[in-house]
Amino acid sequence: MLVERVKIPLVDLKREYIFLKKEIERQIKECFERHHWVLGEKTKEFEEKAARYLGVKYAIGVGSGTDALVLSLQALALEKKGEEFFSKKDEVITTPLTFIATAEAIIRSGATPVFVDIDEDTFNISPQAIEKAITRNTQGMVVVHLYGQACKMTSILRIAKRYNLFVVEDCAQSFGAQFKGRKLGTWGDLGAFSFFPSKNLGAYGDAGMVTTNNLRLAQLVTYLRNHGQKRRYEASYIGYNSRLDSFQAAVLLAKLRYIDRFNRRRIKIAKKYTHSFLKIKNLVVPSLPENEFEHVFHLYTLRVGRKYRDKLVSYLRKKGIEARVYYPKLVSFMKRISSLSKIKNIENTLRLHKEIFSIPVHPFLEESQLRYVVSKVKEFFG
Questions:
Q1: How far apart are CA 243 and CA 337, in angstroms?
Q2: Alpha carbons 249 and 208: distance in angstroms, whole number
Q3: How far apart are the C-alpha atoms of 83 and 94, rounded to whole Å?
Q4: What is the pLDDT of residue 2?
Q5: Cis peptide bond upstream of 147, omega within 30
Q6: Is the pLDDT of residue 1 over 60?
Q7: pLDDT 10s digits, 320-340
Q8: Contacts of 82 (CB under 8 A, 6+ apart)
C-alpha cells in the first residue's frame, strides 16, 4: 500500500508525541486525579492562556473547528436578527478554496454562501472581489487564512465597516499567525479555530475555539456550546453539545507553550524550500512576508503548470514524499453545496486550483529529509 511507502509524511504526530510525551502525560494525569472531564479546570486554564497568547479578551473552547464556525455565525444571527438562524436570503461571502466546513457552517447557520475569487499571491479571499459581491442581502463574510497566511485584514475591515458587515475569521490553519503584528483571530467580530490533530496547534481528537473581544458575543457562544443554557436545565437558545473536554484541553496546554518554536521551525523550512526552488522555471514558490509570523506555513503550497501538477505529485509520492493537493475539489462545485450557494467570478481560483500542491513542512522535518524533498523535486524537472 502507498501509505507503507511514505518516508516523509506531511505531519509527523508520532515524533511530536515523543518530544512532548512527559508534559502531555502529566497534564492528562491531572485530569484523572481531579476528576474533571468536560468544561473542567483544564478547559478554563487553556481558554485563559490561549486568550492571553492571542491578545484577545475572550476564548471559548468548543468541540471542533466546524462547531466554532457554526456557533460564531449563530451568535451573530442572534445579535443581528434576534434569533439563532439567518434566512436563506441572507448572504455570507467566502472563498471557494477552503475545506468543506467553511461553507457547511454558513449553510447550517441558515444563510447562503456567496463564493468570490482569491488573490493570486496569497490564495486568500480578494478584498476587491468581496466588495464587488456585496448586495443589500449581504450580512457579512467568513475569511479564511489559508495555509497559515494572513488575509488582507485592513482592507477587509474597511469594507466591513463601510457596508456594516460582520467578519468571522476562519483560523483553522493559522494559530499563531499575525497581520501587522496582531494575532489572527482578533481582527474580526469572531475568530474560529480548529485544533484537529494535524493543525499547527492540534489536539488528539476533535477540538476548537471561538475568540472575540465582544462580551455579548462571547456570552452567546458560551450558551450555545452547552445546549443554549444560561442556567442549568433551562434552554434559552437552540444550541449544541459542543464542549471542549478536559483531555483535549490538557493536550493543547502541553503544546501551547511550544507553538512559537514550532511555527518558527516551519518558517525556517519554508525559507529553505523557497531558496532552493527559486531557479526552477516551472515552479512558483509561495510569497514570504517581510514580517515574521504573517505566514506560519500550516502547508507549504507551490504552483506548477497544470500539465505537470498531477505527474509531479505522483512522482513525489512514489519517492516516499507525502505531497498532496489542498483541495482536490473546490467546495463551490460540490453538488449539494453548490445547490445552496451562489458563485461569482472566480477566474483566479479556477486557474490556481489546477496548479497548487503541498509538500511536508512540519516542525519535526529533519534537514536530511528537507534535502531529500528538494532533490526529488529538482530531479523531476531534470
A1: 27
A2: 10
A3: 22
A4: 43
A5: no
A6: no
A7: 999 999 999 999 999 999 999
A8: none
Residue 125, SS3 per DSSP? strand
| Domain locations along the chain | 13-117+125-256, 258-380
Selection from 370, 78, 324 nearest residue 223 by Cα: 78
Cα-based torsion angle of the residue sequence 115, 119, 123, 124 in order, rounded to the nearest 10 degrees: -60
Q: Is the dihedral of CA 329, 105, 202, 58 positive or negative?
A: positive
CA–CA separation, 240 and 10 (whole Å): 33
Domain 13-117+125-256 has CATH 3.40.50.300: no
pLDDT at 4: 44
Q: Average pLDDT for residues 292-314, to the nearest whole number? A: 95
Q: Could you tell me the sign of the dihedral formed by the alpha carbons of 9, 14, 18, 19, in that order?
A: positive
CATH number for the domain running over 258-380? 3.90.1150.10
**158 φ, ψ to 5°?**
-65, -45
Beta strands in 185-341 (DSSP E): 190-194, 208-212, 229-231, 234-235, 283-284, 300-304
DSSP label of 220? H
State the cell numbers at 65.
473547528
